[in-house]
Structure formats: C-alpha cells, structure tokens
Amino acid sequence: VKTSGKMNYRFFDREYYEAVRAKIDRNAELRHALETDQLVLYYQPRVEMATGATCSLEALVRWAHPTRGILEPIDFIPLAEESGLIVQLGEVVIDKVCAQIAYWSRQGRDVVPVSINVSPRQFNESDVTEVLRQAIERHGISPRLVEIELTESSMTADSVHVSQSLENIQRLGVALAVDDFGTGYSSLSQLQRLDFDVLKVDKAFTAELEKTREGSVFFTAIITMAHALGMRVVAEGVETVGQARCLKQLQCDEIQGYFISMPLPATDRQPILPRYVL
Ligand code: C2E
Ligand code: CA
Ligand code: CA
Ligand code: CA
C-alpha cells in the first residue's frame, strides 16, 4: 500500500501532538501533587568508616501517588526538570526536610545532618540561598544540620554566578557536596577553585571495585586529591561487605548504599543505625 506524503505527515503530527499532550497531562498531575502535598521524603543513612556511626542522612523524594503507589524520582524528576516545575518541587523538598529536622530535634536526641539534592535547573534558575535561609529560619533549625548536594552539571553555567551562589550557601553555615562525582564534565581545577566540603563518588565506581584489579585506581586517586583539598569522600552505592572493606582500606571517609540501609520513610526518630564495625 502506497501512502501519500501528506498522510504520513499527518500521522507523524498526530503522534507528536499526543506525546506533547501526555507530557502536559503528567505535568498538570505533578503540579496537583505539589499542591495537595503528595510528595514524601525517604532518608538513607551515611556511615563514617572510622567509627561505624551514622553521620548523616540523604533525603530522597518519593511521590505517594493516589492510585499508582509510591513513585521513584526517575518517574517524575526528569519531567519536572524539563518543565521547570523542579524549582517549586525543590522548594517543597527543602521546606519538608527543614520541618523534619525541627521535629527530630524536638524529640530531644542528638540529630545528624540531612543532605538535600538540588537539581541543576533549580540551582541556576532560582535563589536557592534565599529559599534555604528562609526555611532554616521558619523552622528554627541549625544550618549545620543541612547539607546541599549538587551534580557537576550544575556547575557548567557562568562560573562567577556559580562560585558566588556556592559561597552564599556556605556562608549560611550549610555544607556543600558534589554528587555523582566522576560522571560529569567538571575538571579537577574547577573542584580546587570551588570549595566543596564533601565529594560523593558515583556508584558506578563503587561497582568496579571488586571486578577488576584496576577498580580501585580511580578511588585511590580521588581520595588522595580530595583529602589534599580538605574534602571528605563518600562512596555511593555500596552493596557488599567486600566493597566496604576495600573502601576502608583506601581510607574513604564515609559509605552509603544498600549494604548499610535502603532509604527509609521518616519516623519519630532519625534512622540512626547501630555502630557498624568492619
Ligand atoms: P542520587 O542523588 O544519586 O541518590 C542516590 C540514589 O541511589 C537513590 O535513588 C538511592 O535510593 C539509590 N541507592 C542507594 N543505595 C544504593 C545502592 O547500594 N545501589 C544502588 N544501585 N542504588 C542505591 P532514588 O531515591 O531513586 O533517587 C534517584 C535520583 O533522583 C537521585 O540520585 C537524585 O539525583 C534524584 N533525586 C532524589 N530525590 C531528589 C530531590 O529531592 N530533589 C532532586 N532535585 N533530585 C532528587
Ligand atoms: Ca544525591
Ligand atoms: Ca549520587
Ligand atoms: Ca574545604
């Protein structure tokens, strides 16, 4: 069957139209979710190798969807990033984390810091420092209990703006971490110039640790460099005792991953684990 060019064109148009339509619908749904408070945060512990103690938690967003269950970030963060809704979503996350820290602090126990993921678009298009400052003040918490995680792709924009924003965040007393290190485009000189407190090495490198003899080369180099620059190193995605032992030997400062704990919903107390002795 021979179809005319015109028919094909119309068919293509329709598919395209429907794809756009679906995106608009999902966006509207996500906006509604923000308005009706459907986002929840899970918390994943990070453990300090020297002591085995839980030293901080990472807040990871979930969408408690009314019919589809708990949705993971992969199902809605990319869309939010594309549409710009990530700015509002990010503000909701910052507010929720600060409220949760305030709640935990009122329970009268020692509270460890919580790190918050900030997306590139949120970092570049909104005044994250101001949002943070207001949330910290509104909930009456110590800025020392908050850490911000940024990926290398946040730092590709105008470098003056980037370093100024980073400095402003640190001036609040909030620590800064580079997230997914090793997967992006940042140069080592950029790292030296920007004064981060923590370097989180992407889980892809952790996965290589026990596979090949060269698996630890990257970690060894990064840890040496990070320590020379006064940064702590966190290995992400640690799933086995072998990886954890190897990282301890390499003098990695902290580990995070399923080996320690899955991300957990918030309860009355912070998810502080018993000291882990390797
Ligand atoms: P991320 O910041 O790199 O967070 C770590 C991800 O690795 C989490 O996935 C976590 O559940 C998962 N993970 C933890 N331990 C292990 C492990 O041992 N093995 C493996 N394979 N995975 C592990 P999750 O919660 O699905 O989040 C995915 C990404 O979504 C995050 O990656 C982050 O980029 C983004 N995200 C999560 N919450 C937020 C948020 O509040 N705001 C923004 N802007 N992005 C967020
Ligand atoms: Ca992160
Ligand atoms: Ca990460
Ligand atoms: Ca430093």
From TrEMBL:
The lineage of its organism: Bacteria, Pseudomonadati, Pseudomonadota, Betaproteobacteria, Burkholderiales. Signal peptide: none annotated. It comes from the Bacteria. It comes from Pseudoduganella flava. This is Diguanylate cyclase (GGDEF)-like protein. Residues 23-277 form the EAL domain. The chain holds residues 617 to 894 of 894 of the full protein.
